Amino acid sequence: MPGLLSVELKVGGSAGFEAKVERWKTESSNRFLQLLEKPSHFQALLLVSCKAKRARGGNSWEQPFLQVELWYRDDWQALSQVSVRKAVKKKNLVKDVLDSLKWYQNPGAPKVALVSNFLKKVGKPNGNCGKYVQVWNKALEEEGFEVLFERLRFHSGSKPWVGTRQLFKKAYEWL
Fold first, then answer.
1. Which of 9, 17, 103, 155 is most exposed, with minimal Cβ within 10 Å?
2. Computed over its alpha carbons, how large is the radius of gyration of the chain?
3. With 0-12 CB in 10 A as exposed, 13-18 as middle and 19+ as buried, what is 17?
């Protein structure tokens, strides 16, 4: 197709999505026809409609659904309808991440794992765990947690940052 392509991007919730797409098609084609009234190099209009839906619990989103249509020569042509995978590496399930960590016995307390290992497993830089821990502990305190990430010595050398399974589950939500 020679010439320029005008692109419209729309996002809507899953409730009544088909009706929203029809409304967007009408609105977009009307705007496009107005654009063509002036001297223009535009030849077609691409409408990309994204259906966004919150996952259960409301803390995350389900995979988006894209519907792509082309307005060319006064007619709409469906190009695709796809469920889109996240472009970013999909987060591991929290259970898988936690199960893969090495857990240490903490005398008189629940087992703990190293914050640096947790960060490495979720693909975050683990060079300065203290920065993460500072933010996490502040948020945990605000949510009423009494047990926080702490430094604990396992052997000679420095005290690494450690946390319990419950703390890592909460921290995973914030990543």
1. 155
2. 25
3. middle
Domains of the chain: which residue ranges? 4-83, 94-174
CA distances, 174 to each of 13, 54, 85, 108, 135 (Å): 24, 16, 20, 28, 10
pLDDT reported for residue 92? 57
Nearest by Cα to 161 from 139, 131, 124: 131
What is the rounded distance in angstroms from the CA atom of residue 133 to the CA atom of residue 160? 11
Q: What percent of the chain has pLDDT over 90?
A: 46
Give the count of beta carbons closer than 10 Å to the beta carbon of residue 41.
7
Q: Which helix (H) or strand (E) holds 71?
A: strand 65-72
Which two tokens mark 105?
């016995």
pLDDT score at 89 = 42
- Report the C-alpha gap between 76 and 144 in whole angstroms: 55
Sequence-separated (6 or more) residues with CB below 8 Å from residue 145: 167, 170
| pTM of the predicted structure, to 2 decimals | 0.49
Render 88-146 in DSSP notation, one character per residue.
Answer: SPPPPPHHHHHHHSPPEEETTEEEEEEHHHHHHHTT---S-HHHHHHHHHHHHHHTT-S
